[in-house]
Amino acid sequence: MVKDRSISSLVLDIVIHITLVFLVVVTLYPIIYIFSVSVSSAAAYEAGKVVLWPAEFTWDAYKIVFEAGTVPNAFKNTVIYTVLYTVLSLFFTTTMAYPLSRPAEKLAFKGFYNKLVVFTMFFNAGTIPIYLVVQSVGLLDSMWSLIIPALITTYNLVVMRTFFVSIPVELEEAAFLDGANEFTIFYKIVLPLSKAAIATVGLFYGVYQWNSWYSAMLYLKTKEKFPLQLVLRDIIVQNQMAAELAAQGDMSMMTEVQSNVESIKYATLFISIAPMLAVYPFIQKYFVKGVMVGSVKG
Amino acid sequence: MSNEAVLSKDQKKVGWWGTQMIAFKKNIFLQALLLPGLIYYIVFHYFPIYGLLIAFKDYNPRLGVWASEWAANGGFEHFVRFFSIPNVWNYIWNTIILSVLHIVWLFPLSIILALFLNEVNCAWYKKLVQTISYLPHFVSVAAVAGMLTMFLSSQGGPGNNGGIINQLLVNMGLISEGIPFLDQTRWFRTIYIGSDVWSSIGWSAIIYIAALSGVDQELYEAATIDGATRVQKMWHISVQMIRPTIITLLIMQIGKIMSLGSEKALLLQRESTMEVSEILSTYIYNQGLGNGYFDYSAAVGLFNSLINVLLVFAANIVSRKLTETSLW
């Protein structure tokens, strides 16, 4: 393409670059600022020295957060919930998506199953009726309440099914001629070919569970079971840090906490987002792919 | 002889049900594979629909859903009560206005971002900006609310001016002391929508960027030969080519106008801002799990879900008329 060297083109380029740089700054600044406050001394922060970069660098806030309070335990909980949820959800989603991707001659009552699933995309019974089911199957205040009621997301099911449909039928027919049954085809041909789709959907589930707090707020009562995001809300949005430490019986840390209260909050905030920030550049391409598949099939 | 031929011959003899049963027996493995998922859907999507019966009952936890007494007014007592509370239209309006503001801001901004990125020729620069723009999508709602709480606070911090926003405003001499943004009704929508834009602009642009990358480059070259400027090409080619995508997504968004979730609103809600921050979903949560009115809250939820279904269907019909693309 011939390079356009007119004035209007130059102005357009300037506008575009200013906009993009502005976007990058606005996106990154809050994250950098959170980190900077969390590793600056309380005195430097109080003196207004932290605007972008850390001042009087120290890991004190992180030491306090990891020695006292509920954050380490919540972090461990979140890791457990995320791993369990991702594995179980993938099992339930793949086992359901595969039959649904088969032609109607093979899967009896396919139309009925499809309608059963699609209906849930449009009609939601709502918070209270779901809460009552969770209660009646005895999941209240259990870590499984964060996992089992959300095992399959219809959107992810559709993404997975779309992928299975795209696998060439010839491969399966060839296997059939060699005497393979449906189980062998699913296990030996379809699953190995679907690594990318499984990775994509697994990441959707994993990120969802890592970032979720709402179900935990609805269903969990015992503080020791809280995931990181709910603890984060309690500490920052509800300002419950002192109460939490008192509940832990850790009075010796109280004064230290009082004097570092702001940097501790920023450290907690950073701990909750840091793992995602570290992995997202590597997983985002799978997400983008998933968005495209999902948007085609609605 | 292939399976299909056998089936179609049988079909004539045994009818629909018979065909299904033959397929069922022949491929029992597929049915077994489907079973865990099926049980999940029945328990966690269809049992709750049965549980919606409490919307028409005076729910008594000891008696359960079925044995509880029917509510007054032919079972519609809770719906009557909802529409007789003074704030009902206020909650509905709050829900709609937040959804509309979300669309009004995020839609054009994400399209502009996609158009601008499309004009960037330097591949690594484009990739870098795109990747950075996805970052907020991976930050949890709880963390976003945490940031807003910290950045917008009006207490503590240097000179007791509050969080970074208030510090900057004081330093620039615009205000003399910190403003408690989150406690004031006039700031709620700005904060809610502003942080929505921060969270989603890059992610929402993906679909347009993909649509733009599919546009035939020859169109641009032909326009260049005809003497079109870059701005003209952006408007007459880029925007026109992604117009079906824009219209479809817009209509689908409008279909979701009443289904705004409660997560973020609950996190940003303060006692002093209820007047603007109480939307339908937070009202359902606050009444149901906050105050324990399960039956009443289920009724409001059912009303909300029915409206959502109607809106989505209406949106789909409009979409089919205008763009010949529809969800189903």
Note poorly predicted spans of chain A: none
Which structural class fits the helix and strand makeup of chain B?
mainly alpha
Mean pLDDT reading of chain B: 88
CATH architecture annotation of the largest domain in chain A: Orthogonal Bundle
How do the strands of the widest beta sheet of chain B line up side by side? Answer: 1-2
CATH topology of the largest domain in chain A: MetI-like fold
CATH superfamily of the largest domain in chain A: MetI-like
Number of helices of chain A: 15
* Head-to-tail CA distance between termini of chain A: 36 Å
**What's the SSE pattern of chain B?**
HHEHEHHHHHHHHHHHHH
Work out the number of β strands of chain B: 2
For the largest beta-sheet of chain B, the strand count, sense and barrel status come to: 2 strands, antiparallel
Q: Largest interface, counted with CB-CB under 8 A?
A: A-B, 99 and 98 residues
The helix-and-strand class of chain A reads mainly alpha
Q: Specify the helix fraction band of chain B.
A: over 70%
CATH class of the domain at 88-137 and 192-277 in chain B: Mainly Alpha
Shape of chain A: globular
The level 1 CATH classification of the largest domain in chain A is: Mainly Alpha
> Residue share in helices of chain A?
over 70%
The number of domains of chain A: 2
> Total number of β-strand segments of chain A?
0
